[in-house]
User: Fold this.
Amino acid sequence: MMESHRCSVITVLLVLLVLEPAVSAQLSQNFYSKTCPNVESIVRSAVQKKFQQTFVTVPATLRLFFHDCFVRGCDASVLLATSNSNAEKDHPDNLSLAGDGFDTVIKAKAAVDSVPQCRNKVSCADILALATRDVVNLAGGAFYKVELGRRDGRISTKASVQHKLPSPNFNLDQLNNIFSSHGLSQTDMVALSGAHTLGFSHCSRFSKRIYNFSKGTRIDPTLNLQYALQLRQMCPLRVDPRIAINMDPTTPQTFDNAYFKNLKQGKGLFTSDQILFTDSRSKPTVDLFASNNVAFQNAFASAITKLGRVGVLTGNQGEIRKDCTAQN
Assistant:
């Protein structure tokens, strides 16, 4: 009887092991060691060329990766285009994605496919993951190892974006909920928010904080008053709300921990930025990252590696697109 029970337990365990989606085991740092051994240097070279043309390459590529992973998982579905403008990238939340991010991936894919051994062997999803690491590093951030082996998705719809991306008005609970739904911790969320040390935003995304915060207060009291008045000068009410403002007013072209130092001074551009410092639950992490750039860089590398595992397609799932903007 005991032997029979033990056998049934072992059988159940084996079934669970088979059913367990071992994503991190399916992704590996040396995935292309035999099929395209120089893939990392090929992508990096293409990204460097693009970076030398325009710095926007950096925040645009980083943001593209984030938006891709948060919607359908890291499957490059954000790159797909449709004839009826009904793809992910056509959703209002994605319209502000800069074209330089898309162009970076397309150019890196062309460079990879120009090598006969590599042609049609490397997914657009992996190229985007590699390009993201490279732009972070080119801007002064840590160089981290990238797990590879993703396949490209075949589905991309506007509808799939709805409620999938964090809003500039989110509080800490809302931020934690949306990140934890992807297996990311509060520390991961705070570290990934540090990407706002690069890039820019449009006035319309934060104008309520500087003009009509509430009936009694015109300016959000968590916002540094001098900074708020500077923002008013840069974002006048009767001027195009699409004017771009640097997310980090101090070192906008360096991937450093200035974002967290700014939060301590009330200079977080979005409500969802400043809440990381004003909420006592996340404040200690902001304090740590503000005082220790190495701690931030390490936490960011860990968090973006975890982000890169979200909803990935591997093995026989999906495809390796010949053209990153279209299904095969």
Remarks:
- The longest strand covers residues 200-202.
- Residues 2-19 form the longest helix (18 residues).
